[in-house]
Every structure is written in structure tokens, then in C-alpha cells.
Design a protein that fits this description.
Putative sporulation protein YtxC; 11 helices; four-stranded mixed sheet; Spore_YtxC; 2 domains; alpha/beta; 291 residues
Amino acid sequence: MIEIHFDEASEAEKLVGLLDHRQPDDGPLFHAAYDGNKTVAVYIQGEEKRVLEEHIIPAMTAFMQEVMEDRLLLSIIANVFYFRDVEEQQQILALAHSFLDGERRDYRKSAAFAASRTVMLRDAFASFLRDGLSFSFSSFVTFRLKPYMERLQHYVELAIDEYKLEQEYQNFVQMLRDCLAGRTPQWPRLYLVHDPPHFVFYDSERRELSAAEVRQLIDRHLVFSQPMYIDASVLAPLVSLAPAEIELYTDHPDDGMVQTLQNVFQERLIVCRRADFSRLFAANAGNGGEA
């Protein structure tokens, strides 16, 4: 018998469910008994090594990842990094998941660091579990899963860095929105053509502006009075002009600057395909330059 003591009755109950799910179709090789409180007893009826490797260890590994991992991450967020606000915790947790699930690349570590967490957990259980053992699960996590916990903490650190960057970005966007709200539109319409990595400005008459003309549009007081750096090639002239409407032509709607323009100018910005500007320009030329 392997006896496992948990801190929460719900944890014990969920482990039993996962163990029951691992029973082979051709007959039970073990039996998981739950005392209704906080202890799970696993009685091995088949060959011990096979039962552990093929059934109990996979179930324990799944339990760690499906039930305990979020709880451990939240504990790290709250007790190591002192984020106590529930909404902040959930945002950081979601970002940590994006790293854990491989949705974002981690440039801080080598490829060797990306060894599967599943493998780490299986190895830890394999070196520890045996028939006749009685142990506290929280103690097992503390003393036997240190590399795994270090891995979780690393990803929480990355998530917090990302969270802070996103907070700074949101503050930056709100600052630019506030600037716009207090300015009178200087032009009724401005055309912006995205030829990566550049943005080409056209005035209301669809005349292309040179880089020098664009710089002259910048309200220097607006730029210097702001606590954050405002991009001088695109954002500063656009916010300075505060046009009533911007038509942006791009084939890269997911580009970072395009996304920022959408976030700042919101309903003032209309996003079109790059080819649409060529047709518009040709139609305008065919009409003798009439708008």
C-alpha cells in the first residue's frame, strides 16, 4: 500500500479520480481508496514495477499538472513576488501559462532548459514511489520537486516581466489617448501607407509628405511634456495633428505599430488593404486629382 496525505480533501478526491481513470480495461491492477478526508491509499495488486510505471506515476504526473500546477503558480505569485490582488494574480497566471505551453519563446535559457516538465515529474515520482510508502504530498513537493518548482518560478518571473511591460504599454496608450482628447483636429483626414518598416504620410489631398515635412508637423511641446518617449516618425506627428480620420493601408494588420495605432486612435482609424490605396490613387489621378 502507498498512503498519501494531502492538505486539502479536494486534492485527495481528484487524485482518486485520475487513478481510477488509469485502470486497465482488462481488469484492475491496483485499487485507490479515499477515506473521505485527506488521505488516499493505493493498493497494488499487480506487478509493482509495471503498475507504478504504466498507471500510478502517469496518474500522479497528470495530477500535478492538471490540479496542482496552477495552485503552485499562484502561491509563487502571491508569496514569493507579493502580488496579492486577485485580478493581477490571474493576469500573471495567464501569462505564465503562455510560457509553460510554449506559446512564447524564452530567450533566457538554452534549448536544454526546455526539457519536458512531464519528464521532470515522472522521474521524481519514479525515484520515490514504492509499495509500503506513506508520505505527505506537500512535503514531497517541497523536498523532491525543487527543480520543478524552480522551473515554475522561472516562468512566473518571465510572466511578471511581461505583465509589467504590458502595464507600461497600456499606460502609454492611455497617455496618448488623453493627448488626443485634448487637441483640436488639424486635418480632417490623413492617409497612411505601411511599407514595412516605414509608414508614408499623405495629406488630405493624397499628396505624399517628405520625412522633413512630417517632422515639421510635430508639436514639440507635446513631445517634451510627456513622461514617456513618443516615436517621432509615426506617433508624434499623428498625435500632434490629431486628424479627425486616418485611413491606414497595410498588409500587416498584426504589426506592432499598426496595433498601437488602432489602440490609440480607435474609431478615428480605418484599416484597409495596401492594394486599396493604389486603386484609390489611380482613381484620383484619373479624375484629374479631384478628391
